[in-house]
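This part of the workshop introduces the protein records we will be handling. As an example, a complete record with its sequence and its structure tokens follows.
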Amino acid sequence: MEKKKSYKGYYITLAVFVLISCAIVLGGLFVKQAEKKEELEKDSAMTTRNYRTEIEVGMDNTYLVTEKISVSFNEQRHGIYRYIPYRGYTNDHKPVYASIKMLHSNEPYETDKENGNVIYQFGDEDTTKTGFDYNFSYQYTPKLDEQFNTAMYNLFPTGWKTEIPEGSSFQITFPKSFDHSQLQLYYGAYGETKDASNILELSWEGNVLSGTLKEPLKAFEGISFFATMPEGYFVNTKTTAGLKQLVMILSIAFGVVIIVLFFGFGIDKKIKPVTLYRAPDGIDSALAGYLVDGDIDTKDIMSLVLYLASKGYLNIKIEDKTTSFIKVRELDQYLPEYCKTIFDGIFDKAAIGEEVEVSSLQYKFAEKMEKAKVQLKDYVKKGEWGGVYTHSSIAFRIIGAVLAIAGVIIYAVSTAVTSTMSGFLIATTIGMVIYYVTGLILLCYAADKWYAMEREKSLTLVRLGVFAVLFGFISYGILFINDAAKHQVMDFRLPFLIMAAVTLIETACIVFLRKRTKKTAMSMNELIGFREYIEGQKLTERKQIIEANPDLFYDVLPYAYVFGLSDAWLNSLNGIEMERPDWIYDARTGHTAYHNFDMMLVFLLLNDRMRTATTTFTSIDTSSQTGAGGFGGGSSGGFSGGGFGGGGGGSW
């Protein structure tokens, strides 16, 4: 009765990955569409009486901006808001990121960020006004991928929701002389480049340009200037080089820390399996299950039922729809407390020979299960074992995982904050982080459970973990590197390659950063040798051993159960001639001991009946438990009119 390999879990997990990917991509696209949706309704509650902008261009191409906006409110309003993009593109489509710092305001304000804009809300929600003359100054510091020699700024924002009247003005002060013919002025709605000299009265006084509107600008129309300066005009313009270096330094630093932790606290002794046909002395099935993976599963505790039965303490009675346990003798005093907890939890005060149905333990046994888990953990931790893993390796593994994930997140946030991204790239960036975390968890779980499940299942988890990590990095990398090459996002290609390479090395270290205590490491040689015997392929030799000692087959069952090898153990011995043990009673046929081995019966016991018992033992009675300013935002899409600054605003 050879059981075919099942790839159901493999395909289900892949399907989940696909669904997650689709959800991330669609979510990112919807978010981006929401960001792009601009509110183009005029603000009928406000009239702009005058708008004046004064700009001082610094030697490092920074901008000290003063805006003086006089407004009247046609209905009761608290004040105005102004949004200024801090990321977008220059007129020649190079990505730019800016820091914006408010220096002075004659009116109280609150600051927020939304859709790539810094938003200043002027006024008090407890008071209203009929009009006001707003006067505020801020420092605008643009940063590009490299040194730049172009001056540009939006003098009047294209997102202003009312008409900017005739007579509104601006003044630009440049740090030193240049060819004034190089300066160009544009006006119109966002993206338009109509010649603004037709609607402006302009005058130069030294390196100061003044301009006054000869006719009003419609709502959502603005003016910007652009000038290519001679080589060396600006000195030490700000770039994103410092941020990129910080990301790379942090990635490498995190990697060095994790590697040091791995070699200092995580290298385990190499396991040298010693072939055993029986479990090592003094190690019951629950203890074996805990030692091989450092985790106490429900099946570890449940295996004690089979273990105690194989040792002659209880019998298992199988009927058509029920399973019962029969008390054969009292437990020996030398057995650990967790064995006593399970045994007493089943039989309580039952007499020898008394029968207890599994169903009668529903809602009564869950507490015993949890108590046994605690006792098993204490037995290993406080006894001669000293725990399964060293405390330092457990702590440092967690620290390593946090650092590795932090490195990926720091990189992702740095690129997302500094660049205006497409919806698809936003989704892929989120996906990269999610897939890496998922892959890291799968790989750590596979490493921890390597000896607690069938090898094919362990390998499947490894494949899925590797797939998740590589899929996240590769899919993001292809899209990001392509966008960076086209100057659609800040050029973080080198930081990405360094981060990805370091993270892959970190992942390998983290997966194996769990060092066993001295006694556990020594016991693993025998436990893994015993496990390999159960899983091994020398069927002829194994059958000869079992035929010579039939009880050995049943003694191994509880261990095969916790190692995740029940099916492998049963399938490999199909067709063997031996007697059924006296601790299994098949009430359906009346068969007890001294009858030929029944493969289907043991399959029924290990799969259906043990699963039912587990559900019953862990069930909990829940029947008695009871459960107990608005203001307009900004638009994304970069800097209006092709210059720095810009944005828009209205009343609230």
